[in-house]
Amino acid sequence: MTEMNEAGTDLIAQADAATARLQQVRDSIGQVIFGLEDEVELCLAAILSGGHALLVGAPGLAKTRLVQAIAVATGLETKRIQFTPDLMPADILGSEILEESDDGKRHFRFLPGPIFCRLLMADEINRASPRTQAALLQAMQEGHVTIAGERHDLPQPFHVLATQNPIEQEGTYPLPEAQLDRFLLRVDIPYPTREAERQVLLATTGAASTDAVKVLDAAEILKLQALVRALPVGEKVLDAILDLLRLARPEETDVDAVRTGVSWGPGPRAGQALMLACRARALLQGRLAPSTEDVAALAEPVLKHRMALSFAARADGHTLEGLIKSLAERAA
Fold first, then answer.
1. CA-CA distance, 82 to 67, in Å (whole number)?
2. Are residues 293 and 314 in the same domain?
3. Residues 91, 196 share a domain
4. Quick one: which H or E segment has residue 82?
5. The domain containing residue 143 runs over which residues?
6. Burial class (CB in 10 A: 0-12, 13-18, 19+), 43
7. pTM of the complete model
8. The domain spanning residue 315 has which CATH number?
9. What is the DSSP annotation of 216-236?
10. What domain count does the chain have?
11. Residues 121, 187: Cα–Cα separation, whole Å
């Protein structure tokens, strides 16, 4: 009993210290990103959960700047890839070149691609061909790349924050649903409020500029990820997650709008994402364990890219956002 009490006390102390450090990260990001507190929290939750995030928003909404600020504050080495239709898998993963030594012997040497970093920004990922998208998403899932039969492990932690423009679809290759499932969360970037836009104008058009500052490093991120997985999840929260998944699946639900209007529902990976993200959100907000409120708040970011409305449902004016909200309210 004493050992259990000591373990619980130690976990509480670790969580308190982690919350304080994460608040410093948010403050650092907040120096350059205005009015996106919820979206910053979702991106950090994805990293703390050990996953990847897809940022979706119109041009000019600071998606790139947000990723750059997160990279600085978390201390993760970052690289950026601008996705274009002519981008090839080797441009991302790397390739082997033939070299000749001084004694005349020839050998192949592997040149790592930009994916060999800790935080990769994949800008406008839907502009690349399906072959290139698949190469990136396979590396995201497996944590390594294979070139000429040789395995090359990616550094840990490794995270991808990809951006996607929902407006300009001409010349793009939308990610298939099976590949979208590789992203832990979808983060929709909204237009700023009037006050937030006022701050942006004042901060970005003057003579002086403010930058984010480094708070964490890769080793500390790994410790925080381990802490997230150690946080307890109550039966009530677990039941809410399971109920939400079943309500969202046409084959299992008793909701008519889902049974007739949803083409496919979320798989088990959605439940895994929700469990981890709820823990991470609780830690970010200074709580030792997640609540059903976390399930409701994270339902849309977790499920939106893992479900699809039928054409008939869209024609009738139904939206995925509204449907997920109603399901989350019922489950939680």
1. 14
2. yes
3. yes
4. strand 78-82
5. 1-230
6. buried
7. 0.91
8. 1.10.8.80
9. --HHHHHHHHHHHHHS---HH
10. 2
11. 14
Are 76 and 140 members of one domain?
A: yes
3-class secondary structure, 33? coil
How far apart, in Å, are the Cα atoms of 95 and each of 66, 78, 105, 111, 152? 30, 20, 20, 6, 11
Long-range contacts of 103-112 (CB under 8 A, 24+ apart): 108/148, 110/147, 110/150, 110/152, 112/152
Same domain, 206 and 308: no
C-beta of residue 76 within 8 angstroms of C-beta of residue 218: yes
Q: Is the dihedral of CA 289, 292, 295, 300 positive or negative?
A: negative
Calpha distance 310→287 (Å, rounded): 39
Tokens describing residue 303? 């499920």
Report the alpha-carbon distance of residue 256 to residue 258 in Å, rounded: 5
Q: Is 75 left (phi over 0), alpha (psi -120 to 50) or beta?
A: left
- Rg (the chain; Cα; Å): 21
252 and 283 in a single domain? The answer is yes
Write 316-324 long-range contacts (CB < 8 A, 24+).
Answer: 316/261, 318/257, 318/261, 323/257, 323/258, 323/261, 323/262, 324/248, 324/299, 324/300
Last residue of a domain, one of 166, 198, 230: 230
Give the helix, strand, coil percentages of the chain, each rounded to 5: 50, 15, 35
pLDDT averaged per 10 residues, the chain (length 332): 64 90 94 92 96 91 91 93 90 85 78 92 90 88 86 93 78 78 93 91 82 92 96 94 94 88 91 96 94 95 92 86 92 82
DSSP 3-state of 267? coil
